[in-house]
Protein: 8-amino-7-oxononanoate synthase
Amino acid sequence: MLDAFDRCRLHDDFQPVTELGAYPYYHPVEERLATGEVVVGGRVLVAAGSNDYLGLSADPRLKDAACRAIRSLGTGTSGSRLVNGSLALHETLEQRLAAFLGQEAAMVTPTGFLANLALGALVGPRDTVLADQLIHASLIDAIRLSRARLRRYRHNDLDHLERLLGGCDPAAAGLIVTEGMFSTTGSLCDVPGTAALARRHGVRLVLDGAHDLGLLGPGGRGAAEHHGLLPAVDLHTLAFSKCFGTTGGAVAGPEQIVVYLRHHARSMVFSAALSPASTAAALAALDIIETEPERRHRALAAAVRLRADLAGLGFGTGASPTTIIPVHVGDVVLCCRLWRELFDEGVFATAMVPPSVPDGQALIRVSTTALHTDAQLDRIASAFATAGRRLGLIP
Structure:
């Protein structure tokens, strides 16, 4: 037989990137400061690619809550939620999340990835899942594991979605799965149009709010609330690793569905439960999300300012209305070189290359947080100006 290990090689593009000293991944952070900065290799850099949009991961209130939980409950949960890993703290968080999202129940999972994998228990081989072309890998994996038929529609293309819905087997179940705020481009789901199609064709709408819950909407309830359509979503998934400043995830929806997933979702049944520290931190974060709207206002305002600065320099930044600013480069090697130049200028951004983005669409993902000061935004823009001119990307 062939040796399976022989196939385990990085993409050819990474060889020149590595030779240039521009490999952009797995750089260990030694310290995460409460000032929107990180320490990498002994240098203090502006964190310009973080998903910590509200700046809560270093908030003293989350740290204190986590420490109290460790002192009373320990560092782990000893088993899955199904058997011996459930905590009263988990149930408190679930009740709070359900009430926050206007749903009957919620189920807390160890990660956001596992929350999305749980969706695989809702459909089977005869069913069809219609999914936006830009959905997260965890959602794709959930559908693959379910063995349901995956039909992907062009990003936010409702005409394409409607044609695919029209071709579905009426005797089989169907789901529409999409994201509220897309993690690479920062674009928003067309919730009004998508929800209307779901109702018209009798399929359920599942919305992954990993990036938008806590950030968008008058009450921070995400893209659906932003559009005034929170009740139109049948099932929410979310991740605590973004606006909640910790780790973990959850699924929120009708009680019958949540109870079913508690017993049938393999990612729930066979995973050790979320740690006490992360559970307590998520609860503390939810308190802040509900009472300090100025945090999301600041993060979004910072993005407006920085996006205008980068576009003014000549970079293509798309039309994202959120905290994510995609700086389009195209070529993988050139994108990684830009990442390295920014790093040398004191800015720690994120390089997005295939398969995270389509071929030929490599980009630098910049994101703003509530912690970014005007001086830091200027520093990011200045770094892009220097790096972009050095590489011939802008005039």
About this structure: The longest strand covers residues 324-330. Residues 10-47+293-390 form a domain with the Aspartate Aminotransferase, domain 1 fold (CATH 3.90.1150.10). Residues 345 and 383 are 6 Å apart (CA to CA). The two ends are 55 Å apart (CA to CA).
